[in-house]
Each structure stands twice: as C-alpha cells, then as structure tokens.
Amino acid sequence: MPRFHLTSIRARIDRTAAIWCDACGGDRTAEVCDGRRRLAVGSVAVLPWSRGTGHVRCTTCDERHPTAVLDVMTSAELAERLDALTRILTVMVVRTGDPSDRVLRRRAVQHVRTAVPGYHQNQLDIDMVALDPATVAPHVEPLADALDTSGKERVVANLVHVALAAHTISSHQRWLIDRVGRSLGLTPVHVSGIIAAAAASVEPIAEDPADRP
Prior knowledge:
Elements: E1 7-11, E2 15-21, E3 26-33, E4 36-41, E5 44-51, E6 55-58, E7 64-65, H1 75-95, H2 102-113, H3 121-130, H4 136-140, H5 149-163, H6 171-183, H7 188-200
Antiparallel strand pairs: 1-4, 2-3, 3-6, 4-5, 6-7
C-alpha cells in the first residue's frame, strides 16, 4: 500500500508561458518556476524552503526545460514575425528602387498580400514614408537564430523576385539585399548565389486591377 506523505517540498510556480517544446515538437503551455521551493502540507504551500535551479515544465508531456527555452520563439511567434518582416522588407525594396515603377509596385503589393491580405497601393506609399532602409538590420537580426538556412534563403530570394519586377536590381537594392543576408548570418558569396538562382527563376507578373489604389 503506498505511503501518504503529509509534507512535501514543492517548486513554486510563478506563471505560465507559451514555449516551443522540443520533446512534444510544438507550441505548448508551460509552468515557469524560478527555483524557489516551499514546504507544503498536503496540497497547501505553507513555508518558504530552499532555492533550486529554475526550470520550465511542459504541461503536455511533463518535460522539464532550462529557463533559456523562454527566449526561443514559438512557431506562432515566428510566423507573426515573418509576416511583419515580409511587409517591411518588400516596402524597403520598392523604396530603394524606383517607387514610381508600376510593375515593381504591383509585384510588391502582391507579395505583401501573401502575409497581409488586403494590403494595397496606398498602404505601400504610407509604409515607404515610415520605413527607412538604413534601419533594416534590427528588423532582421532577431530571426537569424530562428530560421534554418533554407528559410534564410527564401527571405533573400523573395526580395530579388520583387526587385526584378523592374528588370534590374539597383545599387541601393543590392545594398539592402546584402545587408539582409548579413543580418541573417549569410556570407556575401552565399547571398550572391541566392541572387543568381532567384534571377534565373523570375517569371513575368500578370496585370491585377486590384493592385491599383
């Protein structure tokens, strides 16, 4: 017959948080403990006890993780960041090219719509005023550790596809693409290879009346 323990030492749960659980392989809710423990009588914590190592416990699989897991983006957070980055970088590509080029603007709007449905030309003009290409690095760098190599390549290739709607990449656009690549941790040679491969796969874009203001 199992013995019942009237008293026990329990970790104090400070809060719950969303994490990416490697054990589960997905976004999960977790209990966060900073290491403080309490003496409990039955299920009631009554006195502070010793302090241990902080941890995060997945409430789905019960796996314990170091608190550093809280700094890792969940898949939902990553998707949200990528949607925002798609809009920011696409706008910057237009601003560093010829903002009056109708085909460039059309391709840009259609690309942003893959992340932000309903995006239109007037929003593009507003965003071009608000977003300075010189500030691109802080927008990109937080994703450098979250994306794998193929994800980084897609980010750069998408910029090339938008820029080449105007049939050429301006010197300012090339600077922007290089800066994005460096901010993602890619080498200049790697970025040049992505540009060459993306340029070879660019297809003409069809007229879309919905892109007009």
